[in-house]
Amino acid sequence: METVPYDKRSGKIWFNGGTIDWGSAKIHLLSHGLHYASCVFEGERVYDGEIFKLEEHTERLFYSAKRMGIKIPYSEEEINKACEQIVNIQKVQNGYVRPVVWRGSEMMAISAQKNKIHVAIATWEWGSYFDPKLKLEGIKLNISSWRRPSPNSVPWDTKASGLYMICTLSKHEAESQGYTDSLMLDHEGNIAEATGANIFFKNKNGEIHTPTPDSFLDGITRRCIIEIAKSKGIKIIERKIDPDEMKDFVGCFLTGTAAEVTPVSQIGKYKFEVCSLIKDLSKSYQSLVRKKTAA
Predict the structure, then answer these.
(1) Which of 14, 23, 216, 220 is least enclosed by beta carbons within 10 angstroms?
(2) 116 and 200, same structural domain?
(3) Residue 5 included in any domain
(4) CB under 8 Å to 52, separation ≥6 — which residues?
């Protein structure tokens, strides 16, 4: 079923301190955020009407902004309240929240010291990021021809919009080849992440191996899954992982706010099984995010 384009939806959006009609949320063509990627954002999930890990997401939004030299004209508490407010106004029960911060149009060149900082928060009902059937069977990834940049060349530990350009290129390339997503390597040729999710591997001994997040985002969901796995007595090993090592792994899955816990059945020539350990971690994660339902 075709979804309604995001600029054609109805309701309210929180915009620079208040709520406005969805269709009135407009910015100027010459905004610095559009031309020079002076923009940071967050992605948050709503479960049963409540935003999961809201404070952690807002804290990361402010960290990303600071790394980009952007001073958000609101406090973290104000942004938290605004997120909750717009979710209630839109009556979102199970969906997504997108806070976004960008530089405006007062200056149009590389420098942007005088540009106004704009903040908006939108939310909408949203189901699974990947097709539910594919999530049961495991999605298939190719290996991207693009790599995550060297950590001394970009603010790699932020959710800055410019960092996602190669993710879009990678995902489009993967989809054109019949894959669902793409595995990205880091600047040294080691396994990094998928286009919008962290990655984990299970070996024959039941250990979980995951790349060290030293050139890509250490996801909030990633940290949740590590805590859940450790609580179950599963050994977690964070290290550099060479792509050739995938032949020795028997299981693989992705984690992310959008992806949640998504099994992977294939990466290029390497194949994995959707094993009980991965299914159990996914079930435990759903129990965690839906505490109100489970109570």
Answers:
(1) 23
(2) no
(3) no
(4) 44, 45, 46, 257, 289
Residues of the chain scoring pLDDT < 50: 1, 293-295
Of the candidates 61, 55, 63, 59, the residue with the CA atom closest to the CA atom of residue 84: 55
pLDDT of residue 23: 95
Which of 285, 119, 115, 264 minimizes the C-alpha distance to 200? 264
135 catalytic per annotation: no
State whether 66 and 181 are in the same domain.
Answer: no
**Residue 133 pLDDT:** 79
Q: Does one domain contain both 118 and 183?
A: no
- Give how many domains the chain has, as a whole number: 2
pLDDT per residue over 251-275, tens digit each? 999 999 999 999 999 999 999 999 9
Number of Cβ within 10 Å of residue 283's Cβ equals: 11
- Catalytic: which of 12, 159, 171, 202? 159
Domain that residue 53 falls in: 10-125
- Would you state the pLDDT for residue 127? 85
What is the rounded end-to-end Cα distance, in angstroms, of the chain? 34
Which of 13, 38, 34 minimizes the C-alpha distance to 25? 13
Distance, CA of 221 to CA of 228 (rounded, Å):
10
266: domain CATH number? 3.20.10.10
